[in-house]
Amino acid sequence: MKYCILFLSFLCLTNINAQKKNENYRLHIKKSSGPITIDGIGNDAAWQDAEEANDFFMVLPMDNRKATEPTTIKMTYDDTNLYLLATFYNATKANYFVESLRRDFSFGKNDNFLLFLDPFNNQTTGFSFGSNAYGAQWDGTMYDGSKIDLNWDSKWISKVTRDEEKWIFEMAVPFKSIRYEEGVKEWGINFSRLDLKSSEKSSWTPIPRQFPTASLAYSGTLVWDAPPPAPGTNFSIIPYVLGDVKQNQEVGGVVKTNAKIGGDIKFSLTSSLNLDLTVNPDFSQVEVDRQVTNLDRFELFFPERRQFFLENGDLFANFGYETIRPFFSRRIGLNVPIQAGARISGNLNDKWRLGVMDMQTAPIEESGQPSQNFAVMSLQRKIFGRSSIGMMFVNKQSINYPQENDSLTDIYSKYNRNLGVEYNLASANNAWNGKAFFLKSFAPTDDDSGFTQGAHLAYTSRKWNLRLQEEWVSSDYSAEVGFVRRRGYKNLSGKAGHLFFPKAGPILSHGPELNGFYYFNEQLKETDHTAYLAYKFDFRKRSSLLFFLSDDYVELLSPFDPSGLGISNLTTGSQHNWNALGWEFQSKPQSLFTYAFTGRLGGYYQDGSRTSLTSEVGYRFQPYVSLKANLNYNHINLPAPWNTNEFWLIGAEADITFTNKLFFANLLQYNEQSNNFNINSRFQWRYSPASDLFIVYTNNYFIEPYQSRNWGLTLKFTYWLNN
């Protein structure tokens, strides 16, 4: 009954304020009257005829006035490209602030400009392009109305020039690099500027300060003088050639060399629907995962970074919740070679979106693991303005499965399937959002053929932040291609936060937030909870400070080692309760020297105590070098046999950006908990748009005794060839 009432409230709320909020903010774009050279100067005659967008609105620090830093935007197009010219004048005289020349920079740490494109005008999906004040590019796909996946790369060019009075950004995006519906003359569009000199974020259209400027619900309208040109037959071939040398001291210590070729093909079935093919893919150039100290009872989540899985990735990855995913692409091909894969994704029209994927992995002779096929289908329909309803089917099938009497049948299942439906709420004014979903798993045994469902409703205004959520995961639910942290529980969680806004002084806003997460078994007996009260201060110069008090209770459902070091396990059914206090501080991003401190003091399992201290310090020699160090220290005091344990996690990064096309990233990670010291160096030369040369070196050592575990050196060459 609770689920049905919440779901019906979703349906009612979707009808609130159905009209697009900033529909009347319109920028007319007409075909270029002459050639345009991308030089960051903008003196081509064609720009004189382009309509101008200006008179921006302030979003931060307060959204009740016009921006003080002037900005002008012009757009035009020809048969091949979409062009943009942006000029950012400096009313506040000071040096520019940038972190580095790294592509897809951190938004809050750079003077920057971002374009948000909504070609289907659905206020949900689109593309983002931009640059910081020194010319580092930014691009990503947009989903869920305001989120941006920066792991997506596309082929486009840009240039930045600057002086004391202004900086100018000029770009050309090929129509073949984006997806849109043929014949449509109105797109959603908005422009965002962050100026750290004045601590001002502004937008072409008015946007309430509680929402990001990427909120497509508040975009304006780009009006074409004629429908943008059809891209015609559009395909890209992205081959790669790779050579590597590796040695694994833990398995024989033999030095192995390897040569490999493969690649991807992108083919536009329509102007908005894309076919991706991959053969013998390799992801060695992908940025290495940051290590973390794990004192949790459940598996940690690491995001997908591999390019093949990213375009329209929300169709596959966003079904369910972060801790209940029926499909998680990192289950495919991280420890098993992928032979080939195909994917169709995109918009069928302004209402329907489709995602279909099929991946085939090779068998592993050493372990006896059979080859496996992974098939996924996701279908989504927009309803009630910005909301949507969708379905997903996931199938993992073993090929040449072992015979019934083979011991491997206990390790590798013959198949695992998930089928589900989901409703996503997004109100026209972005204030209300929510979700309701149901998933059913199918497997050879009843022990893995269960269900899960969840729902939430959230409200956000300038002063209030409210959310209520419930989940139920049955003990026999399984998602072998998904990410499910725990099974056999019901959860009820919520939060309520309020902000106060002083009229003057260094504090921009402050206020409390109460959070509670309560877990029960399927017989509604409480098994654990976490509740905490936080108070946060946001300062006008963009630094922040937070304090919290927490209460935790755990009844263990399985044996657990609280030290994370494999010393001994607490018994199933044992009960533990403790309190803690903590703080978080983040310095202002305008400083060349930045720092952050996080701490937690309090109780722990078995009436013990835990102190956790984390810090991050950074210094930049802008725009070429960014240095960063991360330190995490844990001190755990428990009765015997654990006694007192302490361990460090230390990370050091040196990000050198010689130009906005030549990068050298270095990461060192020292993790006492996992007894591992890791070195990872990655050199990247983007010699042509979306085409790269990579040299990647990685080495892992045991900390104690100090000796090499494994190392590898990879040379990889990729080239993006358009038709």
Automatic annotation (TrEMBL):
A family per Pfam: CBM9_1
Family annotation (Gene3D superfamilies): 2.60.40.1190
A molecular function (GO) term: hydrolase activity, hydrolyzing O-glycosyl compounds
DUF5916 domain ranges (all copies): 233-335
Coiled coil: none
CDD domains: CBM9_like_2
Ranges for domain Carbohydrate-binding: 38-197
Top-rank taxon: Bacteria
GO biological process, one term: carbohydrate catabolic process
Protein name stated in the entry: Carbohydrate family 9 binding domain-like
Organism per entry: Maribacter arcticus
